[in-house]
Amino acid sequence: MRPHGTRFLALTAVAAAAAMVLAACSSSTTTGTSSGASKSPIVIGTSLSLTGDFSVDGQAFQRGYNLWVEETNKAGGLLGHPVQLKVLNDNSDPGTVTTNYTQLISQDHAAFVFGPFSTLLTAPAAQVAARYHYAFPEGAGGGPLVFSLKLPNLFAVSPVVADQLIPFADWVASLPANERPKTAAYPMVTDPFAVPMVQNAQAILQKAGVKTVYSKIFPAENPAYKAGADAIAALKPDMVVIGSPDVPGVQSVMQAFMQQHYNPKILAASAGPDQGSAFLSAIGGPTNATGTMVPNGWYPGFNNPLSHAFVNAYIAKYGGAPADINADAAEAYSVGDTLAAAVNATHSLSNTKVISYLHSGVTVQTVQGPAKFNAIGQNVVASHFIFQWQTGAKFVQVLPTTAQGSVAIVNPTPAWGQG
């Protein structure tokens, strides 16, 4: 959030090897086969973090984009044009992402562009696209930094980052007084995905009477998670909400808690626990994960026909099981869904017409559910879910409690190694 954002990953040995090869490449072009497309190919360009800090998420996005291209071409392409995807590696760097989108539009003459991973990279990338009047559908740039730009070409298909922990905070605030945590800690890293989400939750919880005993933002360049976690363990708050954009941050905090034999009664994170087996492996296995909560807008069991088709196609292409699918891939695929809906509705490959259509108040359907955009590109009908790891390495939807598919929350979290 990567929201936005960051997320459900477990690779087979073959897929992991392939990802390493992709990460080593500075750019790549993927052409899907077409069963019905007969017109000239069109290029869709994107910049992804195949290396650097966001490489796990960037590679998951690439799998999602590649799958969308393949499935689109099987169905005849966009208005009969086969689609080719050109990917440039930004190495998780904002300066490089600006250069990449300038190249994709002004030199490579891509017909359309898709967004990168993370709010940090989406903000400069979207500004480049705006200068060239290109539509900019994106799946992982839902932080306030992006929306503060008020760009007319931006369409963020995933839930707004700052709101994603609200269902969790509202649930805690609604607990009976004898069950509600009395104290809480909020360790965060400077990141436009993590901080707004956690601070919104903190405000709700403080208003509900949960006392903040620790709240600190660490620099992204050298996050002091271990020292912060040790300080929190000494305070022994009832609840901890970790503001991290990835697995390593959550891993550092949880491992420090284990070393200090400290168990918060309620534990949540902005991202990291949604990374599937990558998260489980990092924290020493599923028995240490039980009770941990995390927000997301999609999961493999999401009850949506487009999602079911996506899951089946993903497994057919990459192997594994539904639980192995990173939510980043679904976010990326939803970007393609959004563009395809606009192109098909307008019968045009014009960026101007795509922008106008997506700003007309229409609702389009994606793998992640419906998308309807306001003037600054926020998806105002996006789903907001909270998920929890439960006994037996089960990753399940728990909030909102009234939502279809939600199960009972494990509360309090069990001791380390006993989940």
List keywords for this structure.
419 residues; alpha/beta; four-stranded mixed β-sheet; four-stranded parallel β-sheet; 15 strands; globular; disordered N terminus
Describe this structure in words.
The protein is of the alpha/beta class. The protein has 13 helices and 15 strands. It has helices at 13-24, 55-74, 94-107, 119-131, 144-147, 166-174, 194-207, 225-235, 247-259, 277-282, 305-318, 327-346, 351-358; strands spanning 27-31, 42-48, 83-89, 112-113, 136-138, 154-156, 183-189, 211-218, 239-242, 266-269, 293-296, 364-366, 369-371, 385-390, 394-399. The strands form 5 sheets. The chain has a 4-stranded mixed β-sheet with strand order 1-3-2-4, sandwiched between helices. A 4-stranded parallel β-sheet has the order 8-7-9-10, with helices on both faces. A 3-stranded antiparallel β-sheet has the order 11-14-15. The protein is globular. The two termini are 27 Å apart. The model is unreliable at 1-26 (pLDDT under 50).
In short:
With 419 residues, the protein is an alpha/beta fold.
Secondary-structure topology with pairs:
Layout: H1 13-24, E1 27-31, E2 42-48, H2 55-74, E3 83-89, H3 94-107, E4 112-113, H4 119-131, E5 136-138, H5 144-147, E6 154-156, H6 166-174, E7 183-189, H7 194-207, E8 211-218, H8 225-235, E9 239-242, H9 247-259, E10 266-269, H10 277-282, E11 293-296, H11 305-318, H12 327-346, H13 351-358, E12 364-366, E13 369-371, E14 385-390, E15 394-399
Parallel strand pairs: 2-3, 2-4, 5-6, 7-8, 7-9, 9-10
Antiparallel strand pairs: 1-3, 11-14, 12-13, 14-15
